[in-house]
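Sequence only, no structure available. Ideas?
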Amino acid sequence: MASRKNSSHNRLNVGWQHDINIDKNFRKFHCKYCQKIISGGIFHFKHHLACTRKDFEPCQQVLENVKHMILGVLVKNLEVTENKRKAHQYIGKDDDD
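Reply:
I predicted one. C-alpha cells follow.
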C-alpha cells in the first residue's frame, strides 16, 4: 500500500518547502511569507498558501507562482479523490447485482 502524501512525516510534500516547522507533531507551521502561525496540519497550510479561504485566512504575502503551484496540487488531489470515490461507487454497484 502506498504511503499517504500528506502524512505528517512525509517531508516531500510540496507544502513543507514553504514553512518553518515549529511543532514536533507537524500540526503547526510558521508561514515563511506572512509569518503567521497556522495550525491544523499540512492540508490547512496548503490552503493558506493557495489563498482558497478554506478554513484559514489566505496568505497575503505568498508569491504568485507559489500560490498557483499549490493551488494546482490541491486541484489535482481533489480530482484524484473524486475519481477514487466514483470508482468505489461503481465497484459497489457491481456487488449488488
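The helical segments are 42-50, 64-96.
Hope that gets you unstuck.
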